[in-house]
Amino acid sequence: MPEPRPAKTTFQNPLPVRDLLVSGKELGLPMVDYIAANHRFNAGRMSWHSHEGHEILLLLSGTTSYEFRGGRHASLKGGHIMVVPRGTVHRGLNDTRQASTLCAIVFNPTHARTQTTPFTRKECDWLAKHFGKLRPSPSPMSAAIRQHAKTLHRLIRQHASTEKTEGLAASMRLTVASIIIDTARGYDSTQTASTARVAHDAIHYLEHHYMKPVPMDHLAKQAGCSRPRLFAIFKQETGMSPNDWLQRHRVKVAAELLRTTNRKLEDIASSVGFSSAQYCCQVFRKYTGKTPGEHRAC
To answer: Taking a C-beta distance cutoff of 8 angstroms, is the pair 182, 105 a contact?
Structure first.
């Protein structure tokens, strides 16, 4: 039987979690499906779902992880932002979560073209095009976005309490609009530069240290990010995992040594980082279809 399509979430209050939700229509922002906040929240695994709009996740503290259809994971820590484009199938994981404080905004610029909105029609088209091409990948918040996120979290909690004041909706509306526009301006360029740097630094380190064991946690530290983020970025930039790239590079160097020298296989295997000649043979055959001996005989 075909797999059922994942549910698309829309504004629902209350959800079966301790989120505080506010409808965008209530704020005079019809392009916003809803905004949400939680505080020191431990979530269980969520079911697969997608959104009609783009989701901006702003993690103020703690850690949380998400899985995307196809097996890719993304982990966030306090101070990170991540955009999940509309229609992207994902779910939250519970195995790497710590109590977290976050805000989320789900919005669809195309819904605002015929409705009241802080943005012009041209700006809505730009937002739709911009957010639609992003990939879900954590990135540090700018100082401005982090301040907006703190303000939004406070305003949402105030809205859910009995402390509502005149101008509260207007403040929330302006804060949400500021987060959307600041994210659109800075997220893509920051993400592109950050991911390119992470991948470059990781490859540079592997090229100079392939001769020895390379623990992936240590490689992530050298690249300046978490292990899950390293694997996600490396896959995005190179099409393979760091382990795969490392093994391929070792095989490439070993193949050149087999072709140009008479050194014994045990010596070559050790010099390129393999733990034994037997393991070298296994990996060599996996990537070339030949044994080292067959390659040398060619």
So the answer is: no
Separation between Cα atoms, residue 258 and residue 280, nearest integer Å: 12
In-domain check, residue 174: yes
Q: Which helix (H) or strand (E) holds 206?
A: helix 168-209
Please tell me the number of Cα atoms within 13 Å of 156 on its side-chain side.
26
- Rounded Cα–Cα distance for residues 55 and 128 (Å): 12
Q: What CATH code is carried by the domain that includes residue 260?
A: 1.10.10.60
**Per-position b or e across 225-262, b if 16+ CB within 10 A of its CB:** bbbbbbbbbbbeeeeeebeebbbebbbebbbebbeeee
Q: What is the pLDDT of residue 1?
A: 46
Q: What is the distance between the alpha carbons of residues 252 and 30, in angstroms, rounded to a whole number?
A: 56
Structural domain span for residue 270: 243-297
Q: Cβ(6)–Cβ(67) under 8 Å?
A: no
Three-class SS state of 155: helix
Residues 68 and 120 in one domain: yes
Q: Tell me 112's DSSP state.
A: G
What confidence tens digit (pLDDT) does each residue in 80-118 have?
A: 999 999 999 988 875 444 578 889 999 998 865 545 567
Edge to edge, the sheet with strand 20-23 lists 20-23, 32-41, 100-107, 54-61, 80-84, 139-140
Percent above pLDDT 90 for the chain:
42
H/E element, 39: strand 32-41
Give the SS3 label for residue 215: coil
Cα separation values, 50 from 85, 86, 90, 125, 248, Å: 9, 7, 6, 21, 36
> Looking at residue 6, what is its pLDDT?
60
**Within-domain flag for 207:** no
DSSP type of residue 53: S
Angle (deg, nearest 10), helices 216-223 and 168-209: 120
- With CA atoms as reference, report the closest residue to 277 among 298, 263, 287, 260: 263
